[in-house]
Amino acid sequence: MSGFLRHLLFAFVLALSLPTPCVQQEASTQIYGGGSIFTQPYMDYFTESFQLVRRDDAIVCTYGGASHSLLFLMAKPDLDFAVVDAPLHETLLANNSIAQFPLAGQPLVAIYNLGSSRPATPLVRGSSTPNENKTKTERIRKCKQLLTAEQVLDGATLAAIWLGDVTWWNDPAIVALNPNIALPAEPIRLGHGADRPGGITHSFTNALSILDGRFRAAWSGDGSQDTSRWPQLTGIAGRAIEFSDSGTLSPFVRDTPYSLSYSTFDRAQKTGVDYALMRNSAGAVVWPTVKAVESAISEVSEKLTDSMTINVANGQQRGSWPMCMLHYLAVRSNASTSDCLGINSLLYFTAWTQLTPMAVTKSRELGYAPLSLSFKAKLINNFQKVACNGEKVFDSALLIGTGVRTISFSSWPQEVYYFRGFDAESTITDLSRYNIDFGITARPLTNDESELLGDVPSIPFTMVPVGVAYNLPELVGQGSLLLNLTVLADILLGTIDTWNDTAIQELNPELGDLLPADPIVILNYEDDALSVVFAALSTVSQEFALA
To answer: Which residues pair with 153 in a beta bridge?
Structure first.
């Protein structure tokens, strides 16, 4: 039986039971924080939903800017948290006793206005929709035009604009990236934010620093890392308009011909402003999608520091968006208060947004890229760094593991959260890197895998049946097809290649006339359950075992 034993492969999180009330009531614990408009859709949805889970807790977030919220957090004891738009430097964290936890990512985009020179084929806008009355051919042609006429930039060119080296829209560097657009002979009018560390300008300049070495040298030349001074550092002082509120950059570009600035993709869409696609380091032109940000996040997961500081930019995969903004929850690492329940609830809220399947799905729907699993694991581990009056406050035990689908934990819906679709190889890799607490596989570990994992034991957990599926329209309503292991082995070996083969007919005498003379088409897919099937077939067929 051990050869057929199926160890589960699953990704799940084991947590304390969550009460789910039917109605809301006034909360007894109030938690106050601030953030920017770029996190407002995310925080509004999840703070409201969280009170349905923890009815005694109310998280109240106002949106006066990420940098301002951070300054208030450091200066005023009555603010419990700040949601910032960039990772905070380790020195700032240490000097101000702040801990930070990543929540989700968004694509940063270059936004622009080509004025009256805007091409006849519209650039991608948040307000544009395809004409449903057009023929399919016309719609395909239109899509191709959009793909070829869309403004494209790359990291080097965008950095050159902000360094002051590219100052006209028809500069050869921009023209080379956009051969299908008639670019105007107009100067580029820049607008930037004056937000300090923690704001969108911080994320944008960090991204440019990673994308371009010259910008990095200018940006960090004095070592201040103060985003309020970056125009002086990069040489565009006097040529760019500064805005104290970075949320006004999109309206500025929308209303100012020949202007360029930066924003999030979501904000650009809502404002109805044009945004550029990007050519990434792999040479691919990519769109600012949630999937593209998830790809970029996955590339830096193993580089995450203990302080959770990481910049998500300039990914090497073809599908990665090159400029990403990672939102963080910043809290005091050792709060002094008479009521520590609010701090515990805030950390519980953070875990809930990361580990609940519904929350992960909703995050994508709202336009925010969820974190990779290794991000989540390190985030949860860092909860232990947060104290209240000198004592640790997070009292929920969480375990994270990975693996394939199973139904074993569905009977505990309030106690278990799980992620699905991980194969044995990725699970074992994550275990070896301490990204997860456990893994559940659909097969025994190999000798090499056991050696890699060291003292990690492999324990039989449960058994589920593994079978094969078929599609024979001729048998609908006529009964089920019967196969045995020997026949199945011969089918996979190619010895039996038609449905009306004698061996199949002998097992199904009542279906003999209905079995078609059609070839058997085998659909291959990679799943650890196949190893269970192959092990079973090898016991009845020596030829299969040697194949």
So the answer is: 278
| End-to-end alpha carbon distance in the chain | 23
- Same domain for 379 and 403, yes or no, is no
Residue 129 lies in a domain: no
Q: Which domain holds residue 480?
A: 473-545
Element (H, E) at 211: helix 200-211
Does 236 lie in the same domain as 174?
A: yes
pTM of the model as a whole: 0.75
Quick check: is 13 in a domain?
A: no
271 and 349 share one domain: no
Element (H, E) at 217: helix 213-219
CA pair distance 185, 181, nearest whole angstrom: 12
CA dist., res. 357 & res. 29, Å (int): 26
Per-position b or e across 198-213, b if 16+ CB within 10 A of its CB:
bbbbbbbbbbbbbbbe
Phi (first) and psi of residue 102, to 5 degrees: -65, 145
3-state helix, strand, coil split of the chain in percent (to 5) is 40, 15, 45
Whether 273 and 376 map to the same domain: the answer is no
If asked whether residues 417 and 380 sit together in one domain, one would say: no
Q: Which residue has the tokens 């302080």?
A: 307
* CATH code, domain carrying 334: 3.40.190.10
- Do residues 520 and 497 touch, judged by C-beta distance below 8 A? yes
* Boundary of a domain, candidates 392, 407, 441: 392
For 261, the enclosing helix (H) or strand (E) is strand 259-264
Q: What is the 3-state secondary structure (H, E, C) of 315-356?
A: CCCCCCCCEEEEEEEEEECEECCCCCHHHHHHHHHHHHHHHC
Q: Rg of the chain over CA atoms, in angstroms? A: 28
Q: What's the structural domain count of the chain?
A: 4
**DSSP single-letter state for residue 129:** -
d(CA 361, CA 356): 9
pLDDT higher at 463 or 89: 89
- C-alpha to C-alpha distance for 152 and 277, rounded to whole angstroms: 5
Structural contact between residues 68 and 76, judged by C-beta atoms closer than 8 angstroms: no
Please check whether residue 251 lies inside any domain of the structure.
yes
Same domain? For 93 and 158 the reply is no
The pLDDT tens digits of the residues spanning 93-132 come to: 888 899 999 999 999 999 999 986 554 333 333 333 333 3
Confidence tier at 15 by pLDDT (50, 70, 90): very low
504 located within any domain: yes
- Alpha-carbon gap, residue 352 to 417, rounded angstroms: 10
Please check whether residues 174 and 271 belong to one and the same domain. Answer: yes
CB 473 within 8 A of CB 492: no
Considering the domain architecture, whether residues 235 and 187 belong to the same structural domain is answered as yes
**Nearest Cα to Cα of residue 358 among 403, 412, 418, 309:** 418
Residue 321 pLDDT exceeds 90: yes
What is residue 475's three-state secondary structure?
Answer: helix
Instruction: Tell me 17's DSSP state.
Output: P
- Cβ neighbour number for residue 514 with a 10 Å cutoff: 16
Question: What is the pLDDT averaged over residues 383-399?
Answer: 83
Binned at pLDDT 50, 70 and 90, residue 422 comes out as low
Please tell me the distance from the alpha carbon of residue 61 to that of residue 313, in angstroms, as a whole number.
Answer: 28
Measured CA to CA, the distance from residue 38 to residue 40 in angstroms comes to 6
